[in-house]
Specification:
19% strand, disordered C terminus, 24% helix, six-stranded mixed beta sheet, seven-stranded mixed beta sheet, 13 strands
Length: 345
């Protein structure tokens, strides 16, 4: 009996390992959700933002996956795309090899990112692995593609009814994050979305103007076990049971993407994803004042079901499945549940 149990355990472990190496990393999904934003100007109601994090292109990451991610984005006709860092494969202890790998990434990933189609362009931040190779060269490469790189900077999109501000923070681990400068960027009442590769930078985003912080870095834990969660998240803010999706925290609403690639090509319970956010103006009658950030409060997932799109373009894009030659991957268009603080992802 013991031998049978050991054999069964070995078979299960082998099957899980096979799935983690050969199946889940290829199951690129598309996460589509609506986000209510207090005091969002009417001109930005329905504004779509595509979120692409952690490409980690390298010897272990087929370029076809990046092509498929870009095709997913273009199928949704976003107004804006944001790139959340870690574009290649690198290690802090091997700068020469990292720079060589990144040179290949610049050559192969650049034409793919150039295929992104948006109305208002592409914004980006820099991640820790970009710095391991060269943060400056990575920024120059992105700028050469026409991407606006935000390193402690803000971009404001204006309309007659008001503005929407996007702030990009440098990498929390390897970059320079000046708390005073960040507070100045976030001053005022303009609805603001913060881009930060590392989710722990959310601690610098306590100003009332911040409606949402978008991050990557954790890869959703890569390995997420039943009941246990992710043993490794590489983030103090993201606990094992919340390695991605809406992450409860005392600072600001935080959404963490599982990303597209990974340096170690192993995923279990954390498939890669492209995220499409649609901003929704919260109805005035239902709007509640933004809590004072000094008061005890834990930001969690929105306690409302996502709205069903009503206009024809939204219906059309949700039904569009891009066709890309190369690596075969799964397309999952889904609307994650956002009730009761449930993890999205």
């Amino acid at each position: 009996m013991l031998a049978l149990l050991i054999t069964l355990a070995a078979v299960v472990a082998a099957a899980a390992a096979w799935h983690a190496v050969f199946v889940t990393p290829r199951q690129l999904q598309m996460t589509v959700l609506d986000v209510d934003v207090d005091q969002l100007p009417p001109a930005f109601d329905g504004y779509r933002i595509a979120v692409l994090a952690d490409f980690h292109h390298g010897p272990q990451q087929p370029i076809a996956r990046a092509r498929r991610a870009v095709a997913y984005v273009n199928s949704q006709f976003p107004h804006l795309a944001v790139l959340l860092g870690d574009y290649g494969t690198s290690e802090w202890f091997a700068p020469r090899v990292s720079r060589r790998w990144y040179s290949r990434t610049f050559r192969l990933l650049g034409p793919v990112l150039s295929e992104l189609r948006t109305r208002d362009g592409v914004l980006a931040v820099i991640g820790n692995h970009d710095y391991y190779a060269s943060g400056e060269q990575t920024a120059q490469w992105l700028q050469g593609l026409g991407v606006r790189v935000l390193r402690g900077e803000a971009v404001e999109f204006t309309s007659p009814e008001g503005s929407l501000r996007i702030v990009g923070i440098d990498d929390f681990e390897e970059g320079v994050v000046d708390p005073h400068a960040t507070r100045a960027l976030l001053a005022g009442d303009t609805p603001t979305i913060v881009l930060s590769h590392h989710p722990d930078a959310v601690q610098h985003c306590q100003q009332p103007s911040v409606r949402l912080v978008l991050s990557g870095h954790t890869h959703g834990g890569q390995v997420v076990l039943p009941w246990i969660g992710a043993p490794v998240t590489r983030s103090q803010v993201c606990p094992p049971l919340h390695p991605a999706g809406w992450v409860p925290n005392p600072y600001a609403p935080l959404f963490v993407s599982r990303g597209i690639g990974s340096q170690v090509p192993v995923r279990f319970g954390a498939p890669p994803e492209v995220v499409i956010l649609t901003l929704r103006a919260r109805p005035t009658a239902d709007a509640s004042p933004t809590p004072t950030r000094s008061a005890p409060h834990v930001w969690a997932a929105p306690a409302h079901p996502p709205a069903t799109p009503t206009h024809s373009l939204q219906h059309r894009v949700h039904d569009t499945i891009p066709q890309v030659t190369g690596e075969k991957e799964d397309h999952v268009a889904r609307r994650p549940q956002t009730t009761d603080g449930e993890q999205l992802g």
